[in-house]
Amino acid sequence: MKKAQIDEILYSNDDxxxxxxxxxxxxxxxxxxxxxxxxxxxxxxxxxxxxxALDPQTPNKVRGILLAALAYFILPLDTIPDFLVGFGLTDxxxxxxxxxxxxxxxxxxxxxxxxxxxxxxxxxxx
Length: 126
Fold this sequence. Notes:
Elements: H1 3-10, H2 15-36, H3 43-54, H4 60-74, H5 90-102, H6 109-121
């Protein structure tokens, strides 16, 4: 993916778009994570980012970046369709990695603890 494509996905100041992304995230995140758990090398970080994105204390810009990245991850229509074995999640992983780099330091220990508990409850963590 080109940087311009990633920037277009991640950086939005549109509150309505972010609200739509948050609703979609709440509805579909755990299903998508269960479907792709064995193909995501940093699943704990993705789950912690989910909790960070939904935390009202997270700065709006950070929330927007995470909502965009996580929405891109869960939506079926993206640059490389997820069903393509070996390639389908590469664009999702790229977008998530760029987002995590951009917001480094905003994912708190409380987000990681909540993620660990949720992953254990979903049967996705040891």
